[in-house]
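HUMAN: Forgive my ignorance: could you write out one protein's sequence and backbone structure tokens?

ASSISTANT:
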Amino acid sequence: MIESVFLDVGETIVDESREYGTWADWLGVPRHTFSAVMGAVIARGEDYRETFQVFRPGFDLGEERRRRATAGQPEGLSEEDLYPDARPCLGALHSMGLLVGLAGNQTKEAGAALAALGLPVDVIGTSDAWGVEKPSPEFFSRIEAEAGCPSGAILYVGDRIDNDLGPAQAAGLAAAWIRRGPWGYISRIGQSRIDACSSSRAWLNCRSSWKSSTRRTITRPASRAASAVPPAPPDRASRAGSSARPGTGPGHWDTKRSAGSGQPAT
């Protein structure tokens, strides 16, 4: 029985289009060009940050963040960056009596920005604050500790199969795929067995059935059979939780590593 639901941040509840666009502007390249190159990088299974190297070899993301802040153009995360269904979904999950959390490869600044939004969540954790990042098993062990229940009673929702779903399954968590954003459409199911719904409303309907039964085909580490999954994003969340504990998160930019590559990816 699912007792807790943790969601990734970038392209799960947050639309990163604006932030990627500001990086294109900072680099002085057309936004469409930046997006096309990033898509090609993702399709090759490389760290998304390689996109920056294409336009500016030797690009240092940390240093450029500092330069942007000094120039009065820092990365940002605000209400307008949330997908429209984010608050409603988080609120619906919370109303079901579940412990709801956000956990992603993000900076501490992003975690603080998320906390400032007053989302209806109990936990806000970031790789920067926790000192561990996806896809490492330690990241999901931390989620289990924050949830206070067995890994099998936790559902992790994310847009990436390599960094979110596969590692979550391997750690014993159930997993659900929200298919949106670059990774949601470029990724392939591979050997993961995951649950995907085509709309946020459908996703919540799926969740209702999990309350009384876990027969739903959500990812379980023991079962690696492939299954076809139609494009589908889940609902967004909303539980303005004063009890939310800020962790860390990249204002917008995940610091996750690409599975199997040992390189950070989103």
Summary: The domain at 4-15+83-264 is CATH 3.40.50.1000 (Rossmann fold). The first helix runs from residue 17 to 27.
